[in-house]
Specification:
single chain; about 450 residues; alpha/beta; Rossmann fold; Cobalt-precorrin-4 Transmethylase, domain 1; 4 domains; five-stranded parallel β-sheet; 16 helices; elongated
Length: about 450
């Protein structure tokens, strides 16, 4: 990397801008925001620059640039758009050690002026190393929508809390936990809605109680793709101290977790070793009672075959605060990603969802009744009992009913196998389909031309 990112303190320091047009005005305004003493060298200056000079905000040297104009400057910006001027200033800057930026000339720049999202005292700088100012401006616009003005006030609150905790002699780990509590509190929302006094009281409450009870968030990770996480799920993962994750959660979802998070694998796939449900629940309780912020991360939705209801009941019984964040269930998300509408006017007006293995690992006992009562049948995690499941369904709906098995749904390696219900099991073995998998049975499987569907919104 050619450039070293740095923020310069230009308060009260001399800076020189060469040029008198709109480009120069833009640079002057940025330097004034930083508190610099700005001198503008230009034979012809815009009315706005003249107005700044008349009000005493800048010094205007109304002539062509001459040798010595950079004397005493901390930095200089050449916005003249004149090649001889560029060359002369570049030579002078190299002789005198002044840092120079020649606008749109990366080869004649000692520093790059980044695109700035300014939420004082929070500053976010974006640079493409001079490759594409346009891209930097696009990213700045996106960040300005994400990081509103309330973030500046919030940064000030964090700074005040930091000074107080340091003065009290708290360790860095204790300080960090206090910052995390403030970040996940409602302080940002208070500031966004014009209630700074309430936000300040939240800071006082955190500073006065540094050992609060922990909490557990039951979070749905969705069917696989990290881009299907909800915004609420992302926020909790970014802030969590511990993340207890299921076997169905892929690495790209775990990558969303913050660097401070300690990841613990607590899931297991059918027939494989791993922590049992009782051990997982006990671990959540243990961490929460120690005051930690815990995320229990589950594939799909936590309340759809995820045992989230059992976990919530055990936690609330002990008075541990619980948050539940829904996720895109594999029951619907995987079908959509495969281009299969679970309901469609004139084709199917109902669908039924069940798991392919009950608590004892056997195929569902009520399978025939459920298959007979729904237009579309969705079976989650069917691979362990696929032969039995398809045979029993086929006896109810007929051997020619369309079926599909989707493996690794919503992920880049997604595989969709289609056949009749009597032939689907053999087709899956031939593919072969990798778990996690979903079986869909019904006329909707062949209702659309699925080849034109794309899950990626950027395609």
């Amino acid at each position: 990397m050619r450039y070293f990112p740095v923020f310069l303190d230009l308060q009260g320091r001399r800076c020189v801008v060469v040029g008198g047009a709109d480009l120069a005005l833009q640079k002057v305004r940025g330097l004034l925001q930083a508190g610099a003493k700005v001198a503008v060298v230009a034979a012809q200056a815009s009315p706005e620059l003249k107005a700044l000079a008349y009000s005493g905000q800048v010094e205007l040297v109304a002539r062509e640039p001459l040798p010595g104009d950079l004397r005493g400057a901390n930095i200089a910006i050449d916005a003249s758009e004149d090649e001889p001027t560029h060359d002369a200033l570049w030579q002078e800057a190299n002789r005198t050690g002044v840092l120079l930026n020649v606008v749109d000339r990366p080869a004649q720049c000692h520093f790059i002026a980044p695109a700035i999202v300014r939420r004082d005292p929070l500053l976010i700088a974006i640079s493409t190393s001079g490759e594409s100012p346009y891209l930097a401006s696009v990213l700045r616009s996106r960040l300005e929508r994400l990081v509103g003005p309330e973030w500046g006030l919030f940064t000030g609150l964090l700074g005040a809390l930091r000074r107080r905790l340091r003065a009290d002699g708290l360790t860095l780990k204790e300080q960090t936990r206090a910052y995390q509590r403030l970040l996940r509190s409602s302080a940002l929302q208070d500031l966004r809605e014009g209630r700074p006094d309430l936000a300040a009281r939240r800071v006082e409450a955190i500073a006065g109680n540094l050992t609060p009870p922990g909490r557990v968030s039951l979070v749905g990770a969705g069917p696989g793709g990290s881009d299907l996480l909800t915004e609420a799920a992302r926020k909790l993962l970014e802030r969590a101290e511990y993340v207890l994750w299921d076997a169905l959660v892929p690495p790209e979802v775990l990558a969303v977790c913050g660097p401070q998070a300690q990841l613990e694998a607590v899931g297991r796939r059918g027939g494989q070793p791993g922590p049992g449900q009782d051990a997982t629940t006990a671990r959540m309780i243990e961490l929460a009672q120690q005051g930690h912020d815990v995320v229990r991360l589950k594939g799909g939705d936590p309340f759809v075959f995820g045992r989230g209801g059992e976990e919530a009941a055990a936690l609330t019984e002990l008075g541990i605060p619980v948050t539940v964040v829904p996720g895109v269930s594999a029951a619907t998300g995987v079908a959509t990603a495969a281009g299969i509408p679970l309901t469609m006017r004139g084709v199917a007006s109902s669908f039924t969802v069940l798991t392919g293995a009950e608590q004892d690992g056997q195929a569902p006992k009520r399978l025939e009744a459920l298959a007979a009562g729904a237009d579309t049948l969705v079976v989650l995690m069917p691979l362990g009992n696929l032969d039995e499941i398809t045979a029993r369904i086929g006896r109810v709906v007929g051997p020619s009913r369309p079926a599909a098995v989707i493996g690794s749904g919503t992920r880049p390696e997604q595989m969709v196998v289609r056949a009749t219900i009597s032939e689907i099991s053999a087709a899956v073995r031939e593919a072969p389909v990798q778990p996690p998998a979903t079986l869909i049975v019904g006329k909707v499987v062949t209702a659309l031309d699925n080849s034109s569907f794309r899950l990626d919104p950027n395609w």
